[in-house]
């Protein structure tokens, strides 16, 4: 989760988030190169006088036409690769349905017969010592680690958005529409997110908590909860 005065992204906990962080660094280096080139040319113009040969040179026109195209290609290729990776949902190990309400989430494990629960934020007055304010819930989403998880997202009233930054997941919850995405957690842990679409007065009180556990622990949890 994010820490106080943190500079940078949260630690990536899924392959998609790792790719997003790498693409961010790649795009940042491209932007840095462009800024350096512009600064160099501005300095050159201030320090030296330009001749008519420099202004009218066809070589210069060729460069400032081709160079932006190359930059766009350098950004587009990895971006398209990540987009296709995020849309790929191939034989998931577990399917989870998240339904947004004002102002809580309902989760349904569709691979199980009766595994459904509501997830509400724990009020600050009831929060145990050492837990995180405005982020803890009474029922966490528990998933098996290193398994392909498909999540189907919708809403029962207004627009919501199911987002967990450390997993690289953000899917809009729209009434009457089913959106889906997939992710894989690469390590055990507890990952925090929040509703990322303004949905009313208590929008900031719709936290999301995902707990990634080894498969035996998940099986024990699902058996206990569905019994």
From TrEMBL:
PROSITE patterns: COX2 (PS00078), COX2_CUA (PS50857), COX2_TM (PS50999). It holds the Pfam family COX2_TM. GO terms for biological process: ATP synthesis coupled electron transport. Binds a copper A center. One of its GO terms (cellular component) is mitochondrial inner membrane. Its cofactor is Cu cation. Residues 91-224 form the Cytochrome oxidase subunit II copper A binding domain. It is found in: Mitochondrion inner membrane. GO terms for molecular function: copper ion binding; cytochrome-c oxidase activity; oxidoreductase activity. Keywords: Copper, Electron transport, Magnesium, Membrane, Metal-binding, Mitochondrion, Mitochondrion inner membrane, Respiratory chain, Translocase, Transmembrane, Transmembrane helix, Transport. It catalyses: 4 Fe(II)-[cytochrome c] + O2 + 8 H(+)(in) = 4 Fe(III)-[cytochrome c] + 2 H2O + 4 H(+)(out). InterPro entries: CcO_II (IPR045187), CcO_II-like_C (IPR002429), CcO_II_C (IPR034210), Copper_CuA (IPR001505), Cupredoxin (IPR008972), Cyt_c_oxidase_su2 (IPR014222), Cyt_c_oxidase_su2_TM_dom (IPR011759), Cyt_c_oxidase_su2_TM_sf (IPR036257). It is a multi-pass membrane protein. Its main location: mitochondrion. The keyword Magnesium applies. Residues 1-90 form the Cytochrome oxidase subunit II transmembrane region profile domain. The chain crosses the membrane at residues 27-47, 62-84. Component of the cytochrome c oxidase, the last enzyme in the mitochondrial electron transport chain which drives oxidative phosphorylation. The respiratory chain contains 3 multisubunit complexes succinate dehydrogenase (complex II, CII), ubiquinol-cytochrome c oxidoreductase (cytochrome b-c1 complex, complex III, CIII) and cytochrome c oxidase (complex IV, CIV), that cooperate to transfer electrons derived from NADH and succinate to molecular oxygen, creating an electrochemical gradient over the inner membrane that drives transmembrane transport and the ATP synthase. Belongs to the cytochrome c oxidase subunit 2 family. This is Cytochrome c oxidase subunit 2.
């Amino acid at each position: 989760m994010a820490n106080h005065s943190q500079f940078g992204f949260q630690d990536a906990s899924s392959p998609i988030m790792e790719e997003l962080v790498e693409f961010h660094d790649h795009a940042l280096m491209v932007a840095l190169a462009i800024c350096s080139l512009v600064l160099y040319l501005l300095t050159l113009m201030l320090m030296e006088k330009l001749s008519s040969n420099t202004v009218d040179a066809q070589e210069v026109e060729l460069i400032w036409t081709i160079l932006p195209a190359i930059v766009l290609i350098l950004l587009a290729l990895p971006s398209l690769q990540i987009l296709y990776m995020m849309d790929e949902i191939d034989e998931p190990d577990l399917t989870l349905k998240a339904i947004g309400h004002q102002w809580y989430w309902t989760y349904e494990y569709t691979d199980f017969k009766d595994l459904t629960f509501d997830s509400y934020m724990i009020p600050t007055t009831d929060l145990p010592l050492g837990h995180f304010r405005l982020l803890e819930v009474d029922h966490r989403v528990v998933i098996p680690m290193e398994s392909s998880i498909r999540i189907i997202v919708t809403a029962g009233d207004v627009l919501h958005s199911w987002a967990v930054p450390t997993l690289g997941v953000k899917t809009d919850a729209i009434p009457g529409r089913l959106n889906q995405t997939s992710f894989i957690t690469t390590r055990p842990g507890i990952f925090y997110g929040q509703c990322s679409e303004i949905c009313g007065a208590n929008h900031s009180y719709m936290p999301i908590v995902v707990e990634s556990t080894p498969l035996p622990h998940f099986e024990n949890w699902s058996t206990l909860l569905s019994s």
